[in-house]
Amino acid sequence: MIERQGRQPGTRAMVTLIRMGREFGYEKLTAAIEQALDLGCEDVAAIRHLLISDQYSTPLASRLRSGPCRV
């Protein structure tokens, strides 16, 4: 993260991920990080969203894989 975001923002992101691991469990965090990377996401907010997405009736990943959005 430091390479992608710079020293201070990268450090902040890593600390946030450690806190999420404590809150949600490191196994669940690892799965969310892997899922985010598979989806092309690198943002901490995306990882947090994936961690809480089990509260939704349809998981985010299945909605994203269902095809492009049309307006």
In what range is the share of β-strand residues?
under 5%
In terms of structural class, how would the helical and strand content be classed? Answer: mainly alpha
How confident overall, as mean pLDDT? 79
What is the terminal-to-terminal distance?
Answer: 34 Å
What is the helix/strand order? HHHHH
Largest sheet: none
Uncertain runs: none
Helix % is over 70%
What is the rounded Rg?
A: 13 Å
- What's the total helix number? 5
- Count of individual beta strands: 0
What is the subunit arrangement here?
single chain
Coarse morphology? globular
Q: What's a quick, concise take on this entry?
A:
This protein is mostly helical and 71 residues long. It has helices at 2-5, 7-24, 26-38, 44-52, 60-65.
Summarize the topology.
Layout: H1 2-5, H2 7-24, H3 26-38, H4 44-52, H5 60-65
Describe the structure.
This protein has helices at residues 2-5, 7-24, 26-38, 44-52, 60-65. The protein is 70% helix and 0% strand. Helix 2 (7-24) packs across helix 3 (26-38) and helix 3 (26-38) packs across helix 4 (44-52). It is mostly helical and 71 residues long.
Notable traits:
71 residues, mainly alpha, 5 helices
